[in-house]
């Protein structure tokens, strides 16, 4: 079976930045949750009995992250901008249970 997938993505994005001017340093980091989108596709094949294997690729885009680093005299504040993306490859092995699973005492 060949399939395509897509939808909402969210994740934690951490940035770390340091400004060095004439021996003085200012460092900061930010941590935020970003919402974006994902799209991908894959293939799944039957192996034997109830077992299948799959290979899947996903592209994730969280958009742009902007940060402002306070200035060190005589430098004015600096704005940084990064576009955050990721690529994920998954390999999986699945077992399909036959019929409903019912707990018994």
Order of helix and strand elements from N to C terminus:
EEEE
| Widest β-sheet, arrangement of strands | 1-2-3-4
- Name the poorly predicted regions: none
Distance between the first and last residues' Cα: 38 Å
Biggest sheet details = 4 strands, antiparallel
Mean pLDDT: 86
Shape: elongated
* Number of helices, where a helix is a run of at least 4 consecutive DSSP H or I residues: 0
Main structural class = mainly beta
Radius of gyration: 23 Å
Strand count: 4
State the share of residues found in helices, binned by percent. under 10%
Question: How much strand content do the residues show?
Answer: over 45%
Per-chain topology:
Blueprint (H helix, E strand, L loop, with lengths): L1 E20 L2 E25 L2 E19 L8 E18 L10
Antiparallel strand pairs: 1-2, 2-3, 3-4
Description:
- The protein is mainly beta.
- The protein contains no helices and 4 strands.
- It has strands spanning 2-21, 24-48, 51-69, 78-95.
- A 4-stranded antiparallel beta sheet has the order 1-2-3-4, with no helix packed on it.
